[in-house]
Specification:
The complex is a heterodimer of chains A (about 250) and B (about 650). Chain A is built from eight helices and seven strands. With about 250 residues, chain A is an alpha+beta fold. Chain A has a five-stranded mixed beta sheet. In chain A, strand 1 (about 5-10) and strand 2 form a beta hairpin. Among the domains of chain B are: about 265-420, Succinate dehydrogenase/fumarate reductase flavoprotein, catalytic domain (Flavocytochrome C3, Chain A, domain 1, Alpha-Beta Complex), CATH 3.90.700; about 500-625, Methane Monooxygenase Hydroxylase, Chain G, domain 1, CATH 1.20.58. In chain B, the strands form five sheets. In chain B, strands 5-2-1-9-17 form a five-stranded parallel beta sheet, with helices on both faces. A five-stranded antiparallel beta sheet of chain B has the order 11-15-14-12-13. In chain B, strands 16-10-18-19 form a four-stranded antiparallel beta sheet. The longest helix of chain B is centred in the middle third of the chain and has 27 residues, at about 380-405. Chain B is globular. Classes of the chains: A alpha+beta (about 250), B alpha+beta (about 650). At the A-B interface, helix 1, helix 2 and helix 3 of A face helix 3, helix 5, helix 6, helix 12 and helix 13 of B.
């Protein structure tokens, strides 16, 4: 199929960007979206132009490195999917596709479609862990955990840290990302001792990074490639209230 | 002479004795010692976190935008540990034995035994960190089987075990960052090791955003930089996975061991066309329940569901009745290739076999009927119940298959074919994980030590975390104890200046070529040569031709590659050019090694050396050694041998029949 692309090009964080139009031809259904961009980049390189910079690594939907706002949706038109797993079957001959980077003040643009998501690492540094040094552990089966709790914790822990939730949110809120981590750890007995300080510190860091507020529209959940539930945000709010209202 | 520094004494006691007697660095001194960790996958993140906890000042580097992206994250199936929670006869010895046998008797006994000894601690540590492993209704940890074993010792978190383990290690790492014990350098790539008086004392790293070169001092340099599977261009590795850090170390004198030992994984989604940029693995755990088959008739074009049971050839069950679909990876891959080469392959390319879940779905459905006490259940209802069970176990893998191929694997058998997945070879290290360059260490997939000529499933995660959490904290201290008398070296030292200048010159040289061909086009050609001649089967003539082709390719690369953009900016094409240049050189060494090893073992199959029924034929008399290669000049390497002594296990022909 032949397609028209409108791609955001921006040299670096200090310059302003603009959309540039490109034609790509002979794209097969079986290609992934990023392979389509590979084809375009190869063409650009051989004609002496600079290829489009975009983040990607595992190309199997798990590392969280790929991003892209495709036709107004984070990770493109398919539900529960990452850009690297989006295949060209999703488009038809003659389509015009608009490709933008994640748009959020907390994710400054590095170049073209690449953004800096270091804010997520700093939120984790604020408390997204269990303080246990190597060698301190007891036998893994000495602490039975209800299967339902383990499964719910796992469902939250599946977050890949891609930032689609932030990109989808009109306020650029990072609540879904944050709540996934808080839920992952709060649902496990191992996470209990630091439960209060964790949620307070992580929320404080999120605010410091410049993410916006949550107004419960659910756009994050709809865009999440791992289908992290918005119920996690309810749990986060509960944890936050509890931490603020009860003494240590 | 290579000194592997294996402690004396009984195999069971070596590690315990080592830990009891190794030298220690006191906490006040640790605080003064900087240690460099390159790579933040399971090995790197666990090492950096653990060393930070001990008090060392750690500088950790990764080329991705966050340490959480490292490719360990993509590991699907699980992690082995000799816990014997299933009461099915597992033990440290059995895990040790299975690993040595699975590696076709080309791994070091002492290292593998230590790996098995600490395997249980890893599970405990991960549970303590909050890794949400799969659990049974009683609340205890669940296990499943993997290839090459007859016990259930694999712990898992659906099909995302690597992700969960890496997030655990990443969180431990970020905690140390917050505490100020680890400084994290993301989007940084190591481009050289700096040696002073023969010892590794630092690195030159490039800030990938600004293009600036940076000099970093460390009392030790730990390379946790993964494997080199991307030399094949198409592999299950991430796009950025590369050999460059290990290769720079090799160029600085570190020996590269067994480079020809590469793992081709039997169950991957087949190649669909020339545009393909990477291959996707379908976890080995699928072989627990799936059955692999091809039609009995050559060139059968019927749809799989139209081919009756008696016209299907379940060739693994036929050839290997004892292990069936759970034979080790090398055996399963070769068997698939054999069927496809003989004309029984399926799909449009005919380079695929079926992985069929119909029987498992029915079996699970019937079990559910029993469990739920249902009666008068129709066949359709049984199948629906079975699909639910399969969905819970393997749902994310099935979804991934559906997205990539556009087919529904719950209804139609999956098409799979072998693909490059893991590299057993790597930097030569001694028992302490130190390379032959003092102060330079290699952990995880970057070293060669534990998997011999073939790695068993669910053992890579185990090894990465064993090295980082439980081995290096001891062995590093044993060596750094003598370094406390030496002051830190300022990065104004001439050795740092010199190394930085050389790195800058090489980048400038690459940029100046200004030729016509893209980096990607060279990488594709490299991959084709290696896959064809140094892939699933190899022979003398092919390897010799490949060496000549690679030398020519190298020349062409350095005279005609085109790198757009500038040096002092974010320039992914330049990063890739650096990596592909190193891959081309490594590819040649792989072929040199494969040519030298006149035997077949594990993943290394030389057509000249096989049993009458097509199994790998080892030559223990002449090749029971680790081939450690030293670079001595352009296209020249010197072989150093480390004899492998089997004191406990008696090598025999691997038999999975």
């Amino acid at each position: 199929m032949n397609l028209k692309l409108k791609v955001w090009r921006q040299k670096n964080a200090n310059t302003t960007g603009a959309f540039v139009k490109y034609d790509v031809n002979d794209i097969s259904d079986e290609m992934s979206f990023l392979e389509m961009l590979d084809v375009l980049n190869e063409k650009l390189i051989t004609t002496g132009e600079e290829p489009i910079a975009f983040d990607h690594d595992c190309r199997e939907g798990i590392c969280g490195m790929c991003s892209l706002y495709i036709d107004g949706k984070p990770h493109g038109p398919w539900q529960a999917n990452t850009t690297c797993q989006l295949h060209m079957r999703a488009f038809k001959d003659g389509d015009t596709i608009t490709i933008e980077p994640w748009r959020s003040n907390a994710f400054p643009i590095v170049k073209d479609l690449t953004v800096d998501r270091g804010a997520f690492d700093r939120i984790i540094q604020a408390g997204g862990y269990i303080s246990v040094n190597t060698g301190n552990a007891v036998d893994g089966n000495s602490l039975p955990i209800k299967k339902d709790d383990a499964d719910a914790s796992f469902a939250a822990a599946m977050c890949i840290g891609c930032g689609a939730c932030v990109a989808a949110c009109k306020n650029s809120s990072a609540m879904l990302f944050l709540s996934a981590k808080v839920s992952h750890l709060a649902l496990l007995p191992q996470g209990d001792p630091e439960r209060k300080s964790r949620v307070l510190n992580m929320v404080a860091q999120m605010d410091k990074e410049g993410f916006g507020s949550c107004t419960n529209t659910g756009a994050c959940e709809a865009a999440c490639p791992k289908e992290i539930s918005i119920a996690n945000i309810a749990r986060l709010n509960k944890e936050y209230l509890r931490a603020g209202l009860t003494a240590e | 002479m290579l000194n592997s520094k294996i402690p004396a004494g009984n195999l069971d006691d070596k590690w315990v004795d080592y830990k009891g007697h190794c030298k220690l660095v006191n906490p006040a001194n640790k605080r003064k010692m900087e240690v460099i960790v390159v790579g933040t996958g399971l090995a790197g993140a666990s090492a950096a976190a653990s060393l930070g906890e001990l008090g060392y000042k750690v500088k950790a580097f990764c080329f991705q935008d966050s340490p959480r992206r490292a490719h360990s994250i993509a590991a699907q199936g699980g992690i082995n540990a000799a816990k014997n929670y299933q009461n099915d006869g597992d033990s440290v010895f059995r895990l040790f034995y299975d690993t040595i046998k699975g590696g076709d008797y080309r791994a070091r006994e002492a290292n593998v035994h230590r790996l098995a000894e600490v395997s249980g601690n890893i599970i405990d540590q991960c549970v303590a960190q909050g890794v949400p492993f799969a659990r049974e209704y009683g609340g205890l940890l669940s296990n499943r089987s993997f290839g090459g074993t007859q016990v259930q010792r694999t712990f898992y978190a659906a099909g995302q075990t690597g992700q969960q383990l890496l997030i655990g290690a990443y969180q431990a790492l970020e905690r140390q960052v917050a505490l100020g014990n680890v400084t994290m350098y993301s989007r940084h790539e190591m481009l050289d090791v700096v040696k002073i008086d023969g010892k590794a004392k630092g690195i030159i790293a490039r800030n990938l955003i600004t293009g600036e070169l940076e000099k970093h001092f460390g009392y030790a340099v730990l390379l946790c930089t993964g494997g080199y599977g991307n030399v094949f261009y198409l592999s299950t590795n991430a796009m950025g996975s590369n050999v460059s850090a290990a290769w720079k170390a090799h160029k600085q004198g570190a020996y590269f061991a067994n480079p020809c030992f590469t793992q081709i994984h039997p169950t991957c989604i087949p190649v669909s066309g020339d545009h393909q940029s990477k291959l996707t693995l379908m976890s080995e755990s699928l072989r627990n329940d799936g059955r692999i088959w091809v039609p009995k008739a050559k060139g059968d074009t019927r749809k799989p569901n139209d081919i009756p049971e008696e016209e299907r050839d379940y060739y693994l069950e036929r050839r290997y009745p004892a292990f069936g679909n759970l034979v080790p990876r090398d055996v399963a891959s070769r068997a698939a290739k054999e069927r496809c080469d003989a004309g029984y392959g399926v799909g449009t390319s005919k380079q695929a076999v079926y992985l069929d879940y119909a029987a498992a779905i029915e079996r699970y459905g019937k079990t559910e009927v029993g469990k739920q006490g249902l009666s008068n259940v129709s066949h359709e209802e049984i199948i629906a119940l079975g699909k639910e069970v399969v969905k819970e176990k393997y749902g994310n893998l099935f979804d991934m298959y559906a997205k990539i191929t556009g087919e529904n694997p719950y209804e139609v058998p999956m098409r799979i074919y072998p693909a490059v997945h893991y590299t057993m070879g790597g930097l030569w290290v001694d028992y302490e994980l130190q390379t032959n360059v003092p102060g330079l260490y290699a952990l995880g997939e970057a070293n060669f030590s534990d998997h011999g000529a073939n790695r068993l499933g669910a053992s890579a995660l185990m090894q990465g975390l064993a090295d980082g959490y439980f081995v290096i904290p001891y062995t590093l201290g044993n060596n750094l104890a003598d370094e406390i008398y030496n002051a830190p070296i300022p990065t104004t030292h001439p050795a740092f200046e010199e190394a930085e200048k050389e790195v800058a010159a090489r980048i400038q040289k690459l940029k100046n070529i200004n030729g016509k061909q893209s980096v990607e086009s060279f990488h594709k050609r490299l991959g084709k040569i290696i896959w064809n001649e140094c892939g699933m089967s190899r022979n003398e003539a092919g390897l010799k031709q490949a060496i000549a082709d690679l030398q020519a390719l190298k020349k062409e690369f350095w005279s005609d590659v085109r790198i757009p953009g500038e040096i002092n900016e974010y320039n992914p094409e330049l990063d890739k050019a650096n990596r592909v240049a190193d891959f081309i050189e490594l590819g040649e060494l792989m072929c040199v090694d494969a040519l030298n090893r006149n035997e077949s073992c594990g993943g290394h199959f030389r057509e000249e050396y096989q049993t009458p029924d097509g199994e790998a034929l080892r030559d223990d008399e002449n090749f029971m050694y680790v081939a450690a290669w030293e670079t001595t000049g352009e296209h020249q390497w010197q072989l150093h041998k480390e004899e492998l002594k089997y004191e406990v296990i008696k090598p025999s022909q691997r038999n999975y029949k």
